[in-house]
Every structure is written in C-alpha cells, then in structure tokens.
C-alpha cells in the first residue's frame, strides 16, 4: 500500500510491503502521518506556535518543553561536540534543529512500523529515506543541477539514505566557522544504518565546506558510505557506496 502525505514542508512517500488486511495497513499509515504532523507542530521553525519557535523567543525553557524537544536538544549538543562544532543548531543565530529533526522523525516512524510488525517498508521525506526489510530498494539520488536526472542510482537493503544540498533552499546550511552559507559542496549523500545520524552527518559535511570531503571519508569506518558533488561539478564517492548495477 502506498500513500503520500504533505507534512514538514515536503511530500512524504510511504510504502508498506506487508501481507496484511488493507484496514490494518491504512491504520499503520495513519499512525505514521499522525506522528509526523505531531513533529511538525512541535519543531517547525515556520510556525509561530511551535515549541521551537517559542523557545527561540524565550517563551519556553528546556524544563518546560516536551520530552521530545529535550531529546533533540541533547542530541544536537552531542553532535555539535562530535563534529567539532560544524553541526550547530544555532549556526544561524537562532534555534533551528531541522538538520536533525526530519531524519529523526522518519527513523522513529520506521521504528514504530517495525514494532507493529510491518518490517518491510519505505518512507521518503525529501532527501531523507528509510528503507527497511529484506528486499532491495532502488533509490535515485537527484542530480544537483537537473531535477529530471539522477546523480547516482543506489540499491539498499535495510538502510537509510540522507541527502543535503544547496540546490533547493539555497544557502540554508551555515558554516559556523565563517558565519556564512556553506558553498563548496553542492550535494552530500550519506548511506548507513540509521537515518537520524545519516541526515546529521550529511548536514555537517555540507557545513564544513572544504573540509567536508575528508570528513566523509572518515565516516566509512563507522558504516556510513557517502557521495558528494562540489559546486564546481566534481563528483566523489566512498568505496563502499551501494551503487545499483
């Protein structure tokens, strides 16, 4: 069963490959959509009434907020330390944990589906994809200059794929060292076992500008393969990137 839901500023595609009654599958999809809308309501930087916006205005403290927001703030702080400050939820001057939240929300949605017995499924939210189960999922990574083409075709089994780039939203990722939009890398894709981390790693690499490629090389030792395209058109891939034959 397939479904597309507009949430978190993008079209989220959900596919459940399970031999179960349609009403059960519809209920599972409704649960996923409900969770994603809950995340959007709490974390959106575009909604004045979201907890993130209220915290940014000083109307809410970490002790007053929902446990999910406290979790995200703690995880972002851990990633800030782990990436030498390049993953920074405050890089733009105000709280914006978007580089963590979407990947985390989709990974959690996938975990909930698996816990409910739906072990083979796909959730795609823009550049963030979680494909679970024993089957091979074929995923195209968008070309960073031509949306009608793909830069890479991947074949993954039970894996996450996260892509961060400057080609849709412009300079939305800030290099915290310079305080300016990152510009050296145009597109970064990270493939690995957990979408939360893959998404954060892709964002951090993009923010690193010239240091991003070296950072991506190191990720392979932790089981995260990668691909990147520079702003001057050069392409790089790690040795273990699961490219489709």
Automatic annotation (TrEMBL):
Reaction equations catalysed: L-threonyl-[protein] + FAD = FMN-L-threonyl-[protein] + AMP + H(+)
Gene3D superfamilies: ApbE-like domains (3.10.520.10)
Database matches in InterPro entries: ApbE (IPR024932), ApbE-like_sf (IPR003374)
Top enzyme class: transferase
Pfam families attached to this UniProt entry: ApbE
Swiss-Prot/TrEMBL cofactor(s): Mg(2+)
UniProt entry keywords in alphabetical sequence: FAD, Flavoprotein, Lipoprotein, Magnesium, Metal-binding, Transferase
Protein EC: 2.7.1.180
PANTHER family in the cross-refs: FAD:PROTEIN FMN TRANSFERASE, THIAMINE BIOSYNTHESIS LIPOPROTEIN APBE
Protein's name according to its UniProt entry: FAD:protein FMN transferase
């Amino acid at each position: 069963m397939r479904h597309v839901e507009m949430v978190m500023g993008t079209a989220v595609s959900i596919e459940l490959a399970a031999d179960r009654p349609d009403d059960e599958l519809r209920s599972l999809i409704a649960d996923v959509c409900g969770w994603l809308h809950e995340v959007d309501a709490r974390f959106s930087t575009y909604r004045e009434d979201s907890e993130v916006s209220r915290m940014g205005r000083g109307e809410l403290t970490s002790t007053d907020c929902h446990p999910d927001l406290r979790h995200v703030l703690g995880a972002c702080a851990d990633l800030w330390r782990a990436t030498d400050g390049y993953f920074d939820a405050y890089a733009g001057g105000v709280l914006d944990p978007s580089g963590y939240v979407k990947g985390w929300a989709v990974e959690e949605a996938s975990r909930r589906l698996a816990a409910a017995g739906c072990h083979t499924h796909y959730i795609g939210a823009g550049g963030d994809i979680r494909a679970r189960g024993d089957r091979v999922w074929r995923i195209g990574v968008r070309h960073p200059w031509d949306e009608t083409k793909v830069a890479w075709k991947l074949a993954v089994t039970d894996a996450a794929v996260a892509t961060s780039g400057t080609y849709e939203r412009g300079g939305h990722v800030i290099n915290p060292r310079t305080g300016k939009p990152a510009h050296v890398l145009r597109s970064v894709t990270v493939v690995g076992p957990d979408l939360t981390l893959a998404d954060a790693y892709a964002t951090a690499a993009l923010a690193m500008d010239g240091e991003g490629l070296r950072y991506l090389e190191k990720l392979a030792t932790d089981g995260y393969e990668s691909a990147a395209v520079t702003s001057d058109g050069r392409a790089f891939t790690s040795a273990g990137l699961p490219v489709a034959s």
